[in-house]
Design goal:
CATH superfamily of the largest domain: Vaccinia Virus protein VP39
Strand order of the largest sheet: 3-2-1-4
Shape: elongated
Structural class: alpha/beta
Distance between the termini: 34 Å
CATH architecture of the largest domain: 3-Layer(aba) Sandwich
CATH topology of the largest domain: Rossmann fold
Largest sheet: 4 strands, parallel
CATH class of the largest domain: Alpha Beta
Number of helices: 8
Mean pLDDT: 85
Radius of gyration: 21 Å
Bound molecules: S-adenosylmethionine
Low-confidence stretches: 161-177
Length: 177
C-alpha cells in the first residue's frame, strides 16, 4: 500500500482510525495525508499520534457518504489516491463500553461515533420485526434473516419445520463458538 502511494502529494485515508496506516503513508513519502473518520475519538487519537508531522496530516470528521463534500470543506478538490481499511478499529473493539467487544461485557451500543442516534439496543428492541429482518438481510447478508418469522408462520399453519443441519462453526482460532 505504501509502495503504491509513495510520492503522491495528497492521499486520503478514508478510515484513519488510530492512524497506523496514515503514519506508514507519511513515513513512506506521501506529502500530505487527509485522515477521515466518523469516530471523533479515533480522530483525536490519530491527531495526537501524528502531531509530529505538523500540517502534513489533517483530520477530518466525516462519513464515507459525505467524503467529497468534507474534502471540499478543507479546500481539497483532487487527490492522488485514497485508502479504505473497512471495518471496526481495534480501539473500538477493545473498549467494552463501545459495545463491539467479543470478550468484555458492555452495553449493546455499537455506535461508530458519539452522535446521538439509535444504539444497537434501540434497534433490536424497537424496530418492527420486518424492518429488523431487512436490516439483517441487507447489511448482514443473512439470507435466513426472517427465519424466526417463517418458523412462526409455519407453526400457525400447522406445517412441520424443514430439517436443516446446524450451522457450521466458523474456522476462527479462539472463536468462542
Ligand atoms: C479498521 S478501522 C481503520 C484502522 C486504521 N487503518 C488504523 O491504521 O488504525 C476502520 C475505521 O473506519 C471507521 N469507519 C467505519 N465506518 C465508517 C464510515 N461510514 N465513514 C467513516 N469512517 C468509518 C471506523 O470508525 C474505524 O475507525
Amino acid at each position: 500500500m505504501v509502495e503504491l502511494l509513495a510520492g503522491r502529494s495528497v492521499v486520503v485515508d478514508a478510515t484513519v482510525g488510530a492512524g497506523g496506516h496514515a503514519e506508514a503513508l507519511l513515513r513512506g513519502g506521501v506529502a500530505t495525508v487527509i485522515g477521515v473518520d466518523r469516530d471523533a475519538t479515533a480522530l483525536r487519537e490519530a491527531s495526537e499520534r501524528l502531531a509530529s508531522f505538523g500540517t502534513r496530516f489533517r483530520a477530518v470528521r466525516a462519513r464515507f457518504s459525505g467524503l467529497t463534500e468534507a474534502l471540499g470543506r478543507v479546500g481539497v478538490s483532487s487527490v492522488g489516491g485514497a485508502f479504505f481499511d473497512l471495518g471496526v478499529s481495534s480501539m473500538q473493539l477493545d473498549r467494552p463500553e463501545r459495545g463491539f467487544s467479543y470478550r468484555g461485557a458492555g452495553p449493546l451500543d455499537m455506535r461508530m461515533d458519539d452522535d446521538p442516534g439509535p444504539t444497537a439496543a434501540d434497534v433490536v428492541n424497537d424496530y418492527p420485526e420486518d424492518r429488523l429482518a431487512n436490516v439483517i438481510f441487507e447489511l448482514g447478508e443473512e439470507r435466513r434473516s426472517d427465519h424466526g418469522r417463517a418458523r412462526r408462520d409455519r407453526r400457525r399453519s400447522g406445517a412441520s419445520a424443514p430439517r436443516r443441519p446446524p450451522p457450521r462453526p466458523p474456522d476462527v482460532p479462539g472463536h468462542p463458538y
